[in-house]
From TrEMBL:
Signal peptide: none annotated. It holds the Pfam family BPD_transp_1. Keywords: Cell membrane, Membrane, Transmembrane, Transmembrane helix, Transport. It comes from Cryobacterium arcticum. This is Sugar ABC transporter permease. One of its GO terms (cellular component) is plasma membrane. Residues 89-300 form the ABC transmembrane type-1 domain. One of its GO terms (biological process) is transmembrane transport. It comes from the Bacteria. The lineage of its organism: Bacteria, Bacillati, Actinomycetota, Actinomycetes, Micrococcales. The keyword Cell membrane applies. It is found in: Cell membrane. The keyword rRNA-binding does not apply. The chain crosses the membrane at residues 31-49, 95-114, 126-145, 227-247, 279-299.
Length: 313
C-alpha cells in the first residue's frame, strides 16, 4: 500500500506533465497550420492549379470559343516540326548567352571594386537604383534614347561623325541591344549579391595568401572565385532562369521583329495564346519551356555544387 501510495502521485504528475506538453504541442501545431493556410491557398490557386491545367490543355485543341478537345501528343508533334519554335529557341539561347555572360562578368568586377574601394551605403543605393524601375519603363526609356531618328544616342553618334545605328531595327543588333538594356537594369542587383558573398569570405584566408606571396590575380583565381562559388551558382541559376523568361522588353521595343530576330520563346507563347487564341499549342510550348528550365537548373546545381562550400573543407 505504501509503495502504491508513493507511486500514484508520481504517475499523476507524469501524466499531467505529458498532458501539458501534448496540449502545448497541439496548440503549436494548430498555430502552424493556421499560418500555412494562406500560403497553401495561394500556392494551390496560383501555382499548382495553373500548372496542372496548363499540362492538361497542352494535350488539347482549345481556343476559348469551344471546350477543349483532347488530341493527345499532336501539339508536341507539331512543335517538333515548327520552324518558328526552333528559331525562337535559338533566339532565346542567344539572348541568354549575351545577358548571362556580360551581366555575370560585369557584376563580379563591380562587386570586387566595391569591396576593394568602398563600402558606402550611398554607392550601393545608386548601383541598385535601375533594378527598382519597372521593366516596361526601362524598356521605354532605352527605346526612346536609342530611336534612330529622335534618340539622344543616335544624335550623339551623328555629331561625332559615326553615323546613326538602328539598335532595335537591325536584325543583327536588336537582340544584343535588348540584352544590354536588361544587363543595365539587373547589374546592380547581381553585383550586390556577389558583394554579399565576398563579404562572407574570412579575411584570414586573404592574409594567409598574402603571406604565401600570392599576387592579386592568383588570390582572385585561387581564393576568391572558389570561395564565392555557392553565391555564383545561385546567381547563375537565377539569371539563366530569368533570361529564358524575357518578354516585356521585347513586347515594348521590337514586338519579336525585325524578321523574327527577337521572337524569344516566351513571346512566341504569348503570340500563340493571345493573338492566335491557340491555347492548347501555347500550353504545350509552356510545358516544354518548364521542362527545359528545370533540367538546366538541375544540371547547373549539380555541376556548380551549389550546396557545398569550400570553406567547410
Amino acid at each position: 500500500m505504501v509503495v502504491t501510495a508513493l507511486k500514484e502521485p508520481a504517475s499523476l504528475a507524469t501524466r499531467r506533465t505529458l498532458r501539458v506538453k501534448t496540449g502545448r504541442r497541439d496548440s503549436q501545431t494548430r498555430a502552424a497550420i493556421l499560418f500555412l493556410v494562406p500560403a497553401s491557398i495561394g500556392f494551390l490557386a496560383f501555382f499548382a492549379w495553373p500548372t496542372l491545367r496548363g499540362l492538361y490543355l497542352s494535350f488539347t485543341d482549345y481556343n476559348l470559343l469551344r471546350a477543349p478537345t483532347f488530341i493527345g501528343l499532336d501539339n508536341y508533334i507539331a512543335i517538333a516540326a515548327d520552324p518558328v519554335f526552333w528559331n525562337s529557341l535559338k533566339v532565346t539561347l542567344e539572348y541568354v548567352v549575351i545577358n548571362v555572360g556580360v551581366q555575370t562578368v560585369a557584376a563580379l568586377a563591380l562587386a570586387v571594386l566595391m569591396q576593394r574601394f568602398t563600402r558606402s551605403m550611398v554607392v550601393r543605393g545608386v548601383i541598385m537604383l535601375p533594378y527598382l524601375i519597372a521593366n516596361v519603363i526601362v524598356a521605354l526609356v532605352w527605346f526612346w534614347l536609342a530611336d534612330y531618328n529622335l534618340g539622344l544616342i543616335n544624335a550623339a553618334l551623328d555629331n561625332f561623325g559615326l553615323g546613326k545605328i538602328g539598335f532595335f531595327g537591325n536584325e543583327d543588333l536588336a537582340m544584343g541591344t535588348i540584352a544590354m538594356v536588361n544587363v543595365w537594369r539587373h547589374l546592380g542587383y547581381t553585383a550586390l549579391l556577389l558583394f554579399a558573398g565576398l563579404q562572407a569570405i574570412p579575411r584570414d584566408v586573404y592574409e594567409a595568401a598574402e603571406v604565401d606571396g600570392a599576387g592579386e590575380w592568383r588570390v582572385f583565381r585561387s581564393v576568391t572565385l572558389p570561395l564565392l562559388r555557392p553565391v555564383l551558382a545561385f546567381v547563375l541559376v537565377v539569371t539563366v532562369v530569368g533570361s529564358f523568361q524575357i518578354f516585356d522588353t521585347i513586347a515594348v521595343t521590337t514586338g519579336g521583329g525585325p524578321i523574327d530576330a527577337t521572337r524569344a520563346i516566351n513571346y512566341y507563347i504569348y503570340q500563340r495564346a493571345f493573338e492566335r487564341l491557340d491555347f492548347g499549342y501555347a500550353s504545350a510550348l509552356a510545358v516544354i519551356l518548364m521542362i527545359l528550365l528545370a533540367a538546366i537548373a538541375l544540371v547547373q546545381n549539380k555541376l556548380l555544387r551549389a550546396n557545398e562550400s569550400d570553406l567547410e573543407r
